[in-house]
Design brief:
Layout: E1 7-9, E2 23-25, H1 26-29, E3 30-33, H2 38-41, E4 49-54, E5 60-65, E6 68-72, E7 77-83, H3 87-95, E8 97-102, H4 107-116, H5 126-130, E9 134-135, E10 144-145, E11 150-162, E12 166-179, H6 191-194, E13 197-199, E14 213-215
């Protein structure tokens, strides 16, 4: 449970510590990220996510998405696609807001990711069913999920229905936050602290319904070995991309 100040009683699964029945001030754990660092926080650019929305009555919906990615640097935007009959699609079209939450590669959290993929009836709060903790977002109405390491609050830029049954949604990030220990002093993600994950895909699920995931935080720095003139066109981090002919 939480009060209006955003103080919750729950287990902070991301830290692997049992915190049941202990009051947690999430403002001490989550740090707001300035707009200039939104793009840095969006790393890796595409991961497993849990997206929260609310309907016109303010009822919370949570859903898991294997494919969601940062599709623009500045302004930072996130994109995902969803079936038109899903509550996420209806809520996004009705309210124009959603929050992207990045879960860690942690079995206890991934079990809850799987629960959010079940076909609950409209109006059911999937976060409560999964035992996840909703904490207020900074700007939008869809809440953040406390057990996740980073969060991107978005307002819809555009949507497109295609194949009659699919809706693609692009939202501009209007606020972002992250667990304090998951970024360095310059705002770069510490990947082995954030520990993002990927879903292997439905084809890899077992017959009894178990899902498979892979870690997405092993980092390798690869230098540019090509020495042609095109390599000199590479721009510094944060600079606009080079003009093309």
């Amino acid at each position: 449970m939480r009060d209006n100040a955003g103080i919750a009683k729950t287990s902070l699964l991301h830290t692997d510590r049992e915190m049941d029945n202990v009051a947690i001030n999430w403002d001490e754990i989550k740090v707001d990220v300035p707009e200039k660092n939104y793009d840095k926080l969006a790393s890796p650019v595409g991961t497993l996510v849990m997206i929260t929305t609310v309907d016109r009555e303010g009822r919370i919906n949570g859903a898991s998405f294997a494919t969601c990615f940062r599709n623009n640097h500045i302004p930072t935007c996130y994109e995902f696609s969803v079936d038109m009959h899903k509550d996420t699609a209806a809520n996004v079209l009705a309210t124009g807001e959603f929050t992207v939450n990045i879960p860690p590669f942690d079995r206890s959290v991934l079990e809850k990711v799987c629960i959010l993929g079940l076909p609950f009836a409209p109006g059911v709060n999937e976060l409560e069913k999964a035992g996840l903790t909703a904490i207020p977002s900074r700007v939008v109405k869809p809440p953040r999920i406390a057990e996740c390491g980073s969060h991107f609050e978005c307002r819809v830029e555009w949507t497109k229905q295609w194949l009659e049954t699919r809706l693609t949604v692009v939202g501009r990030v209007v606020a972002a936050s992250v667990n304090r220990d998951c970024i360095d002093s310059e705002g770069y993600v510490i990947h082995d602290k954030l520990r993002p994950a990927h879903y292997c895909g439905h084809a890899y699920n077992t017959k009894d319904g178990a899902a498979k995931f892979v870690a997405a935080y092993e980092v390798m720095e690869v230098p540019m070995v090509y020495t042609g003139p095109e390599a000199k066109m590479m721009t510094a981090v944060g600079a606009p991309p080079p003009k093309r002919g």
